[in-house]
Amino acid sequence: MDYVHAFWVGGLICALVQILLDKTKLMPGRVMVLLVCSGALLSAVGIYGPLVDFAGAGASVPLLGFGNVLWEGMKKAIDENGFIGLFMGGFTACAVGVSAALIFSYLASLIFKPKMKE
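and the corresponding structure tokens:
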């Protein structure tokens, strides 16, 4: 059942975001920022954590999950370091994911020789 819950929750999130992209004039970059901020806000009020526990990767893989990771890192760093943790918690929590994305995208660019659109 874990796979089923991950599938329908992740699919619902993706479908709602696709509707948002299709029905509004928001650019994709702004929608991505909206998703990350919404994930952090939902985590701050205690809604997104139980959803991640319920749906697993279906809730943690979309960009809402990235906002959740940032919030959890900030909360932990604030508890450990006080006010300065507000500025360093998000970086330490997401460093591995961001580093992996940069490294793998660079390797892909070496393999596939990307070109600019004309």
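(Above: one complete record from the training split.) The chain has six helices and no strands.
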